Amino acid sequence: MPASSVPDIVVGRLPLYLRALTQMAASGKEITSSQELGERLGISSAQIRKDLSQFGEFGKQGTGYNISYLTDQLRRILKVDRVWDVVLVGVGDLGRAIAHYGGFVDRGYRIVAVFDNDPRKIGSQIGPFIVEDAARLEEVVRARAIAMAMLAVPREAAQAVTDRLVEAGIRAILCYAPTSIQVPRHVHVQYIDPVLHMQRMTYYLP
Amino acid sequence: MPASSVPDIVVGRLPLYLRALTQMAASGKEITSSQELGERLGISSAQIRKDLSQFGEFGKQGTGYNISYLTDQLRRILKVDRVWDVVLVGVGDLGRAIAHYGGFVDRGYRIVAVFDNDPRKIGSQIGPFIVEDAARLEEVVRARAIAMAMLAVPREAAQAVTDRLVEAGIRAILCYAPTSIQVPRHVHVQYIDPVLHMQRMTYYLP
Questions:
Q1: Which residues of chain A have a CB within 8 Å of the CB of B92?
Q2: pLDDT top residue among B152 and A4
Q3: Sign of the C-alpha dihedral, residues A43, A196, A158, A176?
């Protein structure tokens, strides 16, 4: 299984497949097909078959995919057959919404600590968390060997906080700040900036 | 300019270029290069040159890109040389954070109406908006000829609201609900689900 040679764009579709399969399973379905998945996702069935074939043989021609089995395999491939500890840095409006969101843990992630540098926020409760002083970021990340961070700080602070996270051992950052951050080659970054997604759509609008 | 033949993945990188160029301009820079942009974005300079060349000749070998000119061109290509009206549906924690966010209008989008179906929320103020009754969704979208929507409703409600938005004339939906929605071919959808991005990163983690 030459996983390292799989294009990142294929890797990026696997979570979509996993999400759809999980929802199918929750609604009581046991078997699906690349056609059915494709209709649900707006992706061609050929693309889905090709993507999955990069990781193994998950279904037989004509009999479809066993949803439970394929779900397990995708969870293993995406490494969410475990739960990853995540720190959240920044509790403005968006960070607050993230801290309140209950949908992470079923899908492989658990926020374990929430930080801010605003003295008015430190010590306050947000959902199940007590906001900790951002000065303690490195200490907590190191002590708990945390690999992932969500960055919901203002744009101006993003790079400085990133540098501290990376130095403390963080290897994957989900960046909500609307800016690009620089990281060493071994650190992964994904961006969530709604405007990037909207611009990708208005390109196509008349 | 055969824009329709440009791969969507290339289109998806243009907003990143525009965002970086806008920040460079804000810091007083006038000229940049594909190398400099590439370092900032973690994208190869060859890729950037190739992407931009699909849309025209924006720089000369050896002299780099005029930031102001390239910014204008990208804004035109992505159609954010105008401001698009957007409706926001759903004001839970996340919708509330979106309604409070002030960073849309400079980048081509303006939320013009905010909806919810919860009687306790209808009529309340969130940031600059008075929450309107979701029953009036179609009426407002049609009356103002709105093309774009942000969907921040619970997963269970996503498809039904989508169907109503599409019927009323919406042609682009930014979906924050953690589910796939089905739309006709002429409607564009982008998803924001933090877990999809995190799974795309943990795939690579040891």
A1: 97
A2: B152
A3: negative
